[in-house]
Every structure is written in C-alpha cells, then in structure tokens.
Q: What sequence folds into this?
C-alpha cells in the first residue's frame, strides 16, 4: 500500500486470520497424524454383474484420538495445499501395496484388484513413476493388480507429458482409471489419446438416474462412450437395486457402492469376501 505499514493494517481481517490459523493448525496436526500412524486405509468392494467382488478401492481415513474417524474430504483438500499431499500419497501407495502383497498370498483374495486415489499434484511430480515402481518391487506385488484412479485435473496442462507417463505405468502392468468422470471439463479428444483402462462414473450422476432425465442421458452417454473406446466402465455410489438395474440394462459391467458394501478395514473385508 502506498501509505506504508499503517494502511496495510486495514487489510488485516480477523476472520480470515482465524481461517488461516486453523488451516495451519490442521496441517500441522495432519503431519503429526501421518508420523504417528493415525491414518488408515479402508477398502470398498467393486463387483461384477454377478455380484462377485473383483476389486477394492482404498479410501483414506484419519483416526483422530479425540475426534474419531475423520473422512478424507475434511483433510485431503488441506493436504493438497502443501507438499503434505505428496507424503500422504506415498504412504497410501505403500500401505495399499503392502496390503495387496498380503492378499496375493491368500487363495481367496489373490484375484483382487486394488485401486488407489492419486492426486494430480502427486501424479505430476517428476519422481512419481519411480515411487510406483519402488512400491511395487519393495512389496513384491503383481503390478497388474494395482489400479491408479486419476481425475481429469491431471490433464489440464501438457497432454503429451501425461500420456508418456501413463505409458510407462502401463508398461509395468499398472491399470489406469479416470475417476469422477463427467464432472470435469476435459475434452473427448484428450481422453481418446490417453491409455486408460477404465472410466468411473461419478456418484452424482448415479444418485439421480431414476429421477433426473439429464442424469439418465449422461450415464447412458458415458457407458456408450466407454464401450466405443474399449474402456471398462464402473459406476460408483450404487445404493439401490433400481440404480443397479438401470446401469446393467445400459451395459455397465462393474459397480461400487453401499448396495455392495461400505468401505471397511482390510480385516473386515477379508471376512466378507471369504464368507460371501
Ligand atoms: P472418490 O474417489 O470419488 O471416492 C468415492 C467416495 O464415495 C468415497 O468417499 C466413498 O466412501 C463414497 N461412496 C462409495 N459408495 C457410496 C454410496 O453408495 N453412497 C454414498 N453416499 N457414498 C459412497 P470417501 O471415502 O469419503 O472419499 C471421498 C473422496 O476423498 C474420494 O472420492 C477421493 O477424492 C478422496 N480420497 C479418498 N481417499 C483418498 C486417498 O487415499 N488419496 C487421495 N488423494 N484422495 C482420497
Ligand atoms: Ca476414487
Ligand atoms: Ca467420485
Ligand atoms: Ca442431478
């Protein structure tokens, strides 16, 4: 400001200051939580048309000593604002690979695919490929069972660079899924160029398929498009038999949602797959 320090005080906003302070406190708390082992992965089943569990998605939770289980939407956005998301991403990758290695030793579980969420920030770091390769070899997992869920935000910039990275991952055997499909702005021309294995229909479209004609049209279009591009399509957030029937009728072959099971700790899933 042109009148120097005095005038700047006017811009001091106590409410904003509070928000910033609480964010900083949350970030520090989160870093401590990571070091103290308070982060956990829960796993939600992904099923085929016969309701067989074909895979799971790893979803992060924070088991806070006072506040209990904190869902990811309350802390991932804060982590995304700093390099903390990279440390969390690395922890997720290694924790999921350690679990996958365990499952690959058990006959009833060895067929499972494990999908993890990768933030765009993490995907775009120069050593992302190396961290995936290291996790795969350190835990001795079959890479073809590992799936990375990416969002359209990874491809806003340099499509060629993203494509090159994806091709290296594909060469390891890793599978690639495009998460929250339909909610972003990426063009179909981009999508067509990328070596994806799967499109994931966002929960917001699935929720209203029976009641909102525009969501119905959207879901049909996504399924058709996936089929035309020879991509598998999975619907997330399937809660009712009605939604499932609609999706099946229009050619969707994989499903995830409370109708099949909620995200649970690995030990509970073990029981569920063997018992079911
Ligand atoms: P997402 O990747 O779209 O994950 C799906 C979310 O939908 C999960 O919420 C899941 O619990 C929820 N869900 C699944 N089926 C149903 C259903 O039938 N009904 C309803 N109402 N919800 C359902 P969650 O676990 O709270 O995760 C929210 C978001 O947080 C994820 O959305 C993802 O963007 C992010 N996230 C979760 N884990 C990680 C992680 O390890 N790393 C990163 N970077 N982000 C993560
Ligand atoms: Ca996901
Ligand atoms: Ca989603
Ligand atoms: Ca709607």
A:
């Amino acid at each position: 400001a042109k009148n120097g320090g005095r005038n700047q005080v006017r811009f001091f906003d106590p409410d904003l200051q509070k928000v910033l302070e609480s964010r900083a406190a949350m970030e520090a708390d989160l870093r401590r939580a990571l070091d103290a082992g308070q982060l956990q992965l829960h796993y939600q089943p992904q099923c085929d048309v016969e309701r067989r569990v074909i895979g799971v998605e790893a979803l992060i939770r924070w088991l806070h000593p006072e506040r209990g289980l904190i869902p990811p939407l309350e802390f991932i956005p804060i982590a995304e604002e700093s390099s903390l998301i990279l440390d969390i991403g690395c922890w997720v990758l290694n924790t999921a690979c350690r679990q996958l290695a365990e499952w690959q030793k058990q006959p009833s579980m060895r067929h499972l695919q494990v999908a993890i969420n990768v933030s765009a920030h993490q995907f775009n770091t120069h050593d992302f490929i190396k961290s995936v390769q290291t996790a795969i070899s350190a835990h001795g997992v079959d890479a073809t069972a590992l799936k990375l869920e990416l969002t359209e935000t990874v491809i806003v910039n340099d499509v060629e660079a993203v494509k090159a990275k994806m091709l290296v991952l594909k060469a390891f055997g890793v599978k690639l899924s495009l998460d929250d499909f339909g909610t972003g702005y990426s063009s179909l021309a981009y999508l067509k160029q990328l070596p994806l294995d799967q499109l994931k229909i966002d929960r917001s479209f699935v929720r209203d398929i029976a009641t909102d004609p525009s969501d119905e049209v959207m879901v049909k279009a996504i399924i058709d498009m996936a089929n035309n591009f020879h991509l598998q399509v999975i619907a997330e957030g399937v809660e009712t038999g009605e939604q499932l029937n609609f999706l099946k009728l229009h050619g969707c072959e994989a499903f995830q949602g409370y109708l099949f099971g909620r995200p649970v700790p690995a030990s509970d899933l073990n029981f569920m797959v063997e018992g079911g």
